[in-house]
Design goal:
This protein has 277 residues and is α/β, with parallel strands linked by helices. Helix content is 36%, strand content 22%. A hairpin with a 7-residue loop joins strand 1 and strand 2. Helix 3 packs parallel to helix 5 and helix 5 runs parallel beside helix 6. The longest helix is centred in the C-terminal third of the chain and has 18 residues.
Amino acid sequence: MLKIDNISKTFNKGTINEKLALDGLSITINDGDFITVIGGNGAGKSTLLNAICGTIIVDNGSIVLDGKEITKLGEAKRAKYLGRVFQDPMMGTCADMSVEENLALAIRRGKTRSLKWGMPKKDREDFVGALAKLDLGLEERLSSKVGLLSGGQRQAITLLMATLNRPELLLLDEHTAALDPKTAEKVLYLTKQIVEDGNITTLMITHNMQDAITYGNRLIMMNAGKIIYDVSGEEKKSLTVKALLEKFEQIAPSVVASDKMVLATAKEDNPDEVSEG
């Protein structure tokens, strides 16, 4: 689904603030992969997502999405292939528009716009059905302004908007980091449900090591703009937070020393126990 070959990106070249954010990074992502991405601050996680989205253009290397070369393609032209949810619940939705108006915009992403007035009845019925699956009561609030909703409700709607038209790739940039623990757990459960039901290829950045282990079929660890650990299958299923921290200590001891509290924000729960509440 996605093949990234030897991409690099340096910010502020030739200045005292020069920063190598991506350093010859390569990865092949298979159709249906749900990959969690972890790493310390400044590891290059968000830069990788921005490079895929076209928010930044890489200095060298190539990015191929489902056989399409998109390395130099503009951000707007890539948008029809991608879904993205940001850390801030305020992003991704229009606060002054209603729930159904936001969903109507999302379902037309990448499609030719017409001069037809109003919203088709079938679209409204589809919205009600999709919102009902979230189990947040939002199917009864189609006319409510999104800005009046809670952070968790807004993030759930953003997630729905990003996947209404099944994207070729879904990018989740720490999309639960700004939520309280209970709400974050709910949104993660919804994420798992939507991704699995739609078999959507997904990259999810998280600072929570337990979440990185619990969700998805594959985990990658980043440091200094490179992928330093890539694990899947039974090896991923058997991981613990302790084992993952030990792996960090083996591969990148300086990261653990300076960023251990961030990396370890997780509880040592049974990773198979995911609350539905």
